[in-house]
Every structure is written in C-alpha cells, then in structure tokens.
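Revision sheet: structure tokens.
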Amino acid sequence: MAKKKISVSVEEDLFNKIDEKTQELGISKSAFLSFSASFFLHQLESTEQSVGNPNISVYQLIKSNIEALEEAKQLSKEQNK
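Predicted:
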C-alpha cells in the first residue's frame, strides 16, 4: 500500500503526551499517529454502523462530549484556585 505524508499541528499539551507515550512504547510519533488515526476511524465507522441512522453525526457527538469535558475541567481548575 502506498504511503502519503501529512503535516499535523497539535497543541503543546497533546504533543507532550504523544512524545511521552511514543518514548515509552519505543515507536515513532509517525507510527503512533498513523495507528491512532486508523484505530479512531475503525471505532467511528463501527459506531456509525451500530447507530444505524445516517442523520446522526457520531463524530460531532464525540467532539461535543470532549469539548464539554474540557470546559468542565477548566471550570473545576478555576474554582479550585
């Protein structure tokens, strides 16, 4: 299978987590991101099939949940100051 290159920019916190995990696993960041993207797509497609409704955007639901969790974490940090 032919491979294509992409350039990805991520937030510094995510970069640091990826860097730590790839060092721990002994693999390159490229291999880690490739595996992660494949895994996420597989999970997304599987979830979309199990939902069975093409009008529901599973990606948007996941994204909204992640954003809500991040907002809750931020509010919690601010309240604990």
